[in-house]
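Re: the multi-chain job from yesterday

Posting the exact lines I submitted so nobody has to dig through the queue logs.
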Amino acid sequence: DKSAGDAEKVTYKVGTEPTFPPFDTTDEEQNIVGLDMDLIKAIGKDQGFEVTFENLSFDGLVPALKAGNIDIIAAGMNKDDKDRQAQVDFSDAYYESKLMVAVKEDNNTIKSVDDLTKDMKVAAQTGTTGANKTQELQKQGKIKEAVILNGLDTAMLQLINGDVSAVINDKPVTEAYMKKQPDKIKMVGEPLNAENYGFAVKKGNTELVEKINAGLKNIKEDGTFDKLVDEWFNK
Ligand code: ARG
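And the result, structure tokens for all chains:
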């Protein structure tokens, strides 16, 4: 039996790009799952809204939000990025992250970003902070080519196959790939930045951003947040 309250519940469309474990990924049946999905579901439960998930390319998320095709971005998105702040509104931060250089496990020459050379290709995901960094290296003439790919799964595959010398990506996500395929990839050097993930809404949608912030605060206070982080990082 559905109560009147349930029937009135608003449903928000949440956009993500799911090659970003453990934040945004897919299960055996290709359902979109992950820490971001469980967090926004828990926030919705707390705040009385429901969610459905949409699979988009990472560089398509902000345009989709601006066009009104989705209501929320939940995609491990760095909220400190000035460019993005001009286009969308962000919730409070929910996760601290950083970019790292990843190389093949058996690579003994690249020990940090400074060891990348003019003959090397470096991969990153389209529209990400990692792609910005990689393209910057190309512009500075420090690498031969920034290989900008749609999915991080492809980037990691290209690294393992030796098609690229390095991948620049978020540390916790590269670690998730390292867990899936042990002894193939390692991270080297110091972090290239510091970032804070936030959920994004359309510019001016104060009502929704306030709901997300209130829900986030509540699930942190009642232990749900830590429980979900634990679950997804110990899979
Ligand atoms: N944290 C990086 C950024 O904000 C990468 C996020 C990629 N997320 C994804 N779901 N593929 O640009």
